[in-house]
Design a protein that fits this description.
- Helix 5 (about 115-125) crosses helix 8 and helix 9 packs antiparallel against helix 11.
- The longest helix has 15 residues, at about 215-225.
- The protein is α/β, with parallel strands linked by helices.
- Strands 2-1-3-4-6-5 form a six-stranded mixed sheet.
- Helix 5 (about 115-125) links the parallel strand 3 (about 100-105) and strand 4.
- It starts with 7 loop residues before the first helix and ends with a strand.
- Helix content is about 40%, strand content about 15%.
- It has a domain at about 10-140 and about 160-190 and about 235-244: Rossmann fold (3-Layer(aba) Sandwich), CATH 3.40.50.150.
- It has eleven helices and six strands.
- The structure holds S-adenosylmethionine.
- The site of S-adenosylmethionine has 21 residues, from helix 3.
- S-adenosylmethionine (SAM) binds near residues 2, 6, 49, 53 and 90.
Length: about 240
């Protein structure tokens, strides 16, 4: 069971507001390629692909690779911006043993109910020595996350509900993985705070769904007030954790 429902309303909000622009994607492409050298014929698994924005980017960046998009929510699959999104989840991946060259888990890891089981399943489908790349917010590493600036309650929600880096490392260690990298990646989430405030959809953010309505309303007011005078792009910092 994911932390939030991922029903039709969430899927619509995600599709409308969570697809990153080229600048943000570029920062992640640079970070990913420090750990992965995509070659023709490689199979990349976008696990928990949602409406498929990362699969779309991977296919555009590395057209000779084979991107396998997997998503448990039927509502998300229905709205996918890429063809052939398969049903599956981290504990039941529709792929053969040792058939995958890299697994991409973007803002998914907090939804996985049994991390050791997921690690075993990811180990099964990955070829030996190939990476699992985890993009996420992690407890204790929230300083660069805009939502935590306007909604301090989101910090508590993060700390209470998301796995720490150490928890993930321990779970993946049971399946033979070790950490090869952990780095913050700064992305331009919006050209300006005004645009972020105007386009904000609570349903698109797990952390905002985990706080009270009152806390949400107060934070939204703080965001709108700040947006009246803010200048420059909105930058968020998430982490990339890579294990082999
Ligand atoms: C916050 S969205 C992120 C989607 C996308 N990866 C991105 O970065 O834009 C989380 C996604 O994880 C999926 N999910 C939830 N539980 C999962 C699980 N156990 N295994 C794989 N994906 C899961 C949800 O259905 C949802 O599409």
């Amino acid at each position: 069971m994911a932390l939030i429902a991922y029903d039709k309303a969430d899927a619509a909000a995600f599709e409308a507001t969570r697809h990153l622009g080229d600048d943000a994607l570029g920062a992640w492409r640079e970070a990913i390629t420090r750990y992965l050298d995509p070659q023709p014929g490689m199979r990349l698994l976008d696990l928990g692909c949602d409406t498929g924005s990362w699969s779309q980017a991977f296919r555009a960046w590395w057209p000779a690779t084979d991107v396998l998009a997997v998503e448990p929510s039927a509502a998300m699959r229905e709205r996918a911006v890429v063809p052939s999104v398969l049903a599956g989840d981290a504990a039941d991946i529709p792929a053969d043993d040792a058939s995958i060259d890299a697994v991409w888990l973007s803002t998914v890891v907090h939804h996985i109910p049994d991390l050791p089981a997921a690690a075993r399943e990811i180990r099964r489908v990955l070829k030996p020595g190939t990476p699992v790349l985890i993009r996420s917010a992690f407890p204790g590493r929230h300083e660069g996350i805009t939502l935590c600036r306007f909604w301090p309650e989101a910090i508590t929600a993060l700390n209470d509900n998301y796995p720490t880096v150490a928890t993930i490392e321990a779970a993946f260690a049971t399946a033979g993985f070790t950490t090869v990298g952990l780095e913050p990646v700064a992305q331009i989430s919006a050209p300006c705070l005004q645009e972020a405030a105007t386009g904000l959809r609570r349903e698109a953010h797990t952390l905002l769904q985990l706080i009270s309505d009152d806390a949400y309303a107060k934070g939204a007011e703080r965001l709108r007030a700040a947006a009246r005078t803010a200048t420059g792009p909105l930058i968020d910092v998430l982490d990339l954790l890579v294990l082999h």
